[in-house]
């Protein structure tokens, strides 16, 4: 599967945490994209951060006291989409 078909998604309960995480991850050199939360995932904040599956930003966010509502792997295969919860 190509990079566009598989990615990880950080989901937040507040816009404040999403924007803070975006700034921290960009400063650390992560290639990220702010995206809307997928309809299949529930969160209080409508924003999520898409990251490469090879990256693991959780420790950096934890060190900076950024709370996440969930961490998911999204795999798209033609018309099918699988969402796997990795961590809360």
Detailed description of the structure:
The chain is α+β, with helices and mostly antiparallel strands and 88 residues long. It has a single domain (3-77), classed as Alpha-Beta Plaits. 22% of the residues lie in helices and 36% in strands. It has helices at residues 15-27, 58-63; strands at residues 6-11, 32-36, 47-51, 70-77, 80-87. A 5-stranded antiparallel β-sheet has the order 2-3-1-4-5, covered by helices on one side.
Strand order of the largest sheet: 2-3-1-4-5
- What shape does the CA trace take? globular
From the coordinates shown, what is the CATH architecture? 2-Layer Sandwich
Number of domains: 1
Radius of gyration, in angstroms, nearest whole number: 12 Å
Tally the helices: what do you get?
Answer: 2
Major sheet: size, sense and barrel closure? 5 strands, antiparallel
State the CATH class: Alpha Beta
If you consult CATH, what is the topology?
A: Alpha-Beta Plaits
Q: Share of helix among residues? A: 10-25%
| SSE ordering | EHEEHEE
Question: How many E strands?
Answer: 5
């Amino acid at each position: 599967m190509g990079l566009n078909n598989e990615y990880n998604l950080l989901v937040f309960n507040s816009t404040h945490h999403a924007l803070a995480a975006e700034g921290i991850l960009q400063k650390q050199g992560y290639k990220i994209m702010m995206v809307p939360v997928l309809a299949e995932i529930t969160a209080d904040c409508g924003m999520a951060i898409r990251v490469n599956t090879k990256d693991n930003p959780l420790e950096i966010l934890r060190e900076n006291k950024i709370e996440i509502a969930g961490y998911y792997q999204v795999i798209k295969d033609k018309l099918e989409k699988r969402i796997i919860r990795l961590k809360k």
